[in-house]
Amino acid sequence: MTPAPPDPDKRARLLLESAAGMVHGLPARAIVVAAEALPPLAALPDETILLVRDGLPAGLPAVGDDEAGDDHADDAPTAARLARSARAVVHVPPVRLSRLGQARLAAMMAMSAGALSLGDEAVFLVGPHRRPIDALFVLQLGEEYRLAEDGPGRHGEAGEDVGRAVFLRMLSLALMLGQTGREGRPVGTILVIGDSEAVLERSEQLVLNPFRGYPEHERSVLDSRITETIREYSALDGAFVIRADGVVEAAGAHLRASLADKLPSGLGSRHAAAAGITAVTDAIAITVSESGGVVRVWRRGRMVAVFDPGQT
C-alpha cells in the first residue's frame, strides 16, 4: 500500500504547537517565524515574532522561483492579519537562504529591531524557500548577532559606530548581490563599513575612485538610488569603503591588511583582506563570494556570520 503523501500544513501546525510548548518549557523568549511559511491560521501563538519580507532594494530583481516577484503582494494580507496577534513584526530581505541561514538572519534582524536581546533563547521555525516550515532551531543569541546594533566602538571615541540602518542596508545588498550578481553574472566583492579613516589609511586605489568629488548626499547608501551604482561598481577589483553614516568613500580599494594564515580552509584573498582589515580597525566587513554567492560577515579579524543560499 502506497503511503499517503505528507501534508505540509499539518506538519507546519505540529511544529508550531511544539514551538509554543518549548517557549514555556525551556523557557525561551519567543517563537520566530516568517509569515509566508505559515499554514492558514486565525492567530499566532503567544510570544511570536513575525518575519515579513521587505521590498527589494531599488535596481535589484527578485530572487528565487519564477513567481517570486508576484508573491510579495500575496503575502501582504496574510502578514497584516497575523501581525495583529504577533508580539513584534521584523522585516527581513527577500533572499533565498539555507534553513540555518534563515534562522541566523532572523536572529540578527530581531536583535537589531529590539525584539530580542543578547543572551535570549528563541525558537526559530524555517523551511524551504517560500514553502511551509519543516524544521525547528533553538538558538541562544550571542555576540555575533549584535552586529546591527548601535553602540560604541571598541576603542571608545576613536572608533566609529556602525549605524544599524547602514549595516542592515549593506547586508541586504550583499545578500542580493550573492544571488542575482550583475547582469546575470556572479560577482564577488567586499563592503567595509565604519572606521573609514583608519581603513583608508590601510588601503590604496587599484583604479580611479569613482565616488571621489561627489557630494555626500549623492553617495549615501541610505538613498535607494545608489543601489544600482554600487551594483555596477561591484565588478571592480577591490573593496568598497563606507563610512559609519553610510557615505561611500571609495570603490576599487586594495586593502593592505591580511590574515590568510587564520582563514578556514578554502577561503581566498578577498576573505583574508576582510579578516585583516577588521583585525586592525573597528570596521565590519561583508564579503560576497563569486563562486556560490555565500555572504560572510567579519569583525575583529574573524568570521562571525555565514549566509549560504546553496545549502539546506
Query: What is the terminal separation in angstroms?
Result: 31 Å
How many structural domains are formed by the residues?
A: 2
How would you characterize the largest beta sheet? Answer: 7 strands, mixed
Rounded radius of gyration (Å): 20 Å
Q: If you average the pLDDT, what whole number results?
A: 84
CATH architectural grouping of the largest domain: 3-Layer(aba) Sandwich
Shape: elongated
Structural summary, described in words:
The chain is an alpha/beta fold and 312 residues long. It has 2 domains: 8-146, Pyruvate kinase, C-terminal domain (Pyruvate Kinase, Chain: A, domain 1), CATH 3.40.1380.20; 164-307, DNA integrity scanning protein, DisA, N-terminal domain (YojJ-like (1). It contains 7 helices and 12 strands. The chain has helices at residues 8-25, 68-83, 99-112, 164-180, 196-201, 227-233, 269-280; strands at 30-34, 48-53, 88-92, 121-126, 135-140, 189-193, 203-205, 239-242, 248-255, 284-288, 295-299, 302-307. The strands form 2 sheets. A 7-stranded mixed beta sheet has the order 7-9-8-6-10-11-12, sandwiched between helices. A 5-stranded mixed beta sheet has the order 3-2-1-4-5, with helices on both faces. The longest helix is centred in the N-terminal third of the chain and has 18 residues, at 8-25. The protein is elongated, with a radius of gyration of 20 Å.
Keywords:
21% strand; 7 helices; elongated; Pyruvate Kinase, Chain: A, domain 1; YojJ-like (1
